[in-house]
Write a structure and sequence with these properties.
The protein is an alpha+beta fold and 405 residues long. The protein has eleven helices and 20 strands. Strands 5, 6, 7, 13, 14, 15, 16, 17 and 18 form a nine-stranded mixed sheet that branches. Helix 2 crosses helix 11. The protein is globular and about 65 Å long. The two termini are 35 Å apart. The relative contact order is 0.20.
Length: 405
């Protein structure tokens, strides 16, 4: 017998759980079920990032990323404090190491001010005062950046959803989606059948596939990029006090190799960005031929390669050579030696790519009758997850005809 819900949410990462949480708060009594294919929440993008609460300084004013990250950073700090989740507002430095980067650094100052973010400009002596081992020509200090444990946040959201009467079904990979009039039917790999009046697709690395299962053309494809990290060995963690970033290249959605002292005291360095050979390809050994073939058959993949081959070659070189990776780190942290770095777990970014090779640079949320698709929610989605969740809930409740004002 099929189990009925008002809203089915596919995906138990931080965005899907935030959406379910927002639904239970905005419309108590709404029957919400979260379907997660893994045995626990936050197993992919949520649990494999650097744990940074982003300020929103990088993002185009007025964009969803800018609005949701600025709002979400403050809300995430408050949520962590209210629920005793480890967190710290450390601030961060964005450091220019070459003169060619100075105009981009100044542009970030202006963007930060347009986004309502407090930004302070620093010279070399002030950089050294904050980070004695970091070298640069100039920097900006962004005070609202911090760190937290996003896996713990996701776990707490899951508890709150269940406390409010929602259901979370782990080990429930969605295989079939059927749509009839005002009902949506879903069948999972374990043979369970579920029905709902609305469906929310927060499937992350698999969101475009879920959209197609629902009969919708997403107009994009997820091209997975693996971000590889190192850690500083324990006896060298004193090289980094907080968070240190390079000046990003505005042509790419990646922030470059940065230094992150996490909430537990370890110092992550990375990530680079290389093509993953599977959607959950966390190392070069993990290859899923069918997924790889789909990526290679997509026109946007080859257009990315053609336009950005120089950038990609550098990233591949740093992936294959620890010395090359360390050289990139030494631009910010000259005292680091190759032997100071030890490999850390990698993550995979679910990057939406258009057929013309354009990397989608904002959150992308689309709708069709009865269905909401979250089709691009990489970083800073964890930071912005609470306002993203409310936006998804608003749309889902509108679909149900139960919007609360």
């Amino acid at each position: 017998m099929a189990q009925d819900s008002d809203v089915l949410v596919i995906g138990g990462g931080i965005v899907g759980l935030s959406a379910a949480y927002a639904l239970t708060r905005a419309a108590p009594g709404t029957r919400v079920t979260v379907l997660e294919k893994e045995s626990a929440p936050a197993r992919h993008q949520t649990g494999r990032n650097s744990g940074v609460i982003h300020s929103g300084i990088y993002y185009r004013p007025g964009s969803l990323k800018a609005r949701f990250a600025v709002r979400g950073a403050a809300e995430m700090v408050k949520f962590c404090a209210e629920h005793d989740i480890p967190h710290e507002v450390t601030g961060k430095l964005i450091v220019a190491t070459e003169r060619a980067e100075l105009p981009r650094l100044h542009a970030l100052v202006q963007r930060g001010r347009e986004n309502g973010i407090p930004v302070r400009e620093l010279g070399p002596a002030q950089i050294t005062e904050r980070e004695p081992h970091v070298r640069g020509l100039a920097a900006i200090h962004v005070g609202t950046t911090g760190v937290c444990d996003f896996t713990a946040v996701a776990n707490r959201l899951a508890e709150l959803v269940q406390d409010a009467g929602g259901r979370i079904r782990y080990g429930s990979e969605v295989r079939v989606i059927g749509r009839r009039a005002s009902r949506i039917a879903v069948r999972t790999a374990d043979g369970a059948a579920l029905r709902a009046r609305a469906l929310v697709n927060c499937a992350g690395l698999h969101c475009d596939q879920v959209a197609r299962l629902a009969g919708d053309d997403p107009g994009m494809r997820i091209v997975p990029f693996r971000g590889e990290y190192y850690e500083l060995v324990p006896e060298r963690r004193d090289l980094v006090r907080g968070l240190v970033y390079p000046v990003p290249d505005p042509r790419f959605p990646f922030l470059g190799v940065h230094l992150t002292r996490g909430i537990e005291g370890t110092v992550h360095i990375g990530p680079n960005a290389v093509p993953a050979l599977a959607r959950e390809g966390y190392d070069w050994r993990t290859v899923r031929p069918r997924e790889l073939a789909g990526t290679l058959a997509y026109p946007g993949t080859w257009r990315i390669a053609r336009h950005h081959w120089r950038y990609g070659t550098g990233e591949l070189r740093r992936s294959l050579s620890k010395h090359a990776f360390a050289d990139a780190v030494r631009r910010l942290l000259p005292d680091v030696a190759d032997e100071d770095l030890t490999p850390a777990p990698a993550g995979v970014r679910a990057q939406a790519v258009l057929p013309d090779g354009t990397l989608v640079d904002d959150f992308l949320i689309t709708q069709s009758p009865g269905v909401i698709h979250v089709l691009n929610a990489p970083s800073p989605a964890a930071t912005a997850s609470l306002p993203i969740g409310r936006e998804i809930a608003r749309r889902a409740l509108a679909t149900l005809g139960a919007v609360r004002t």
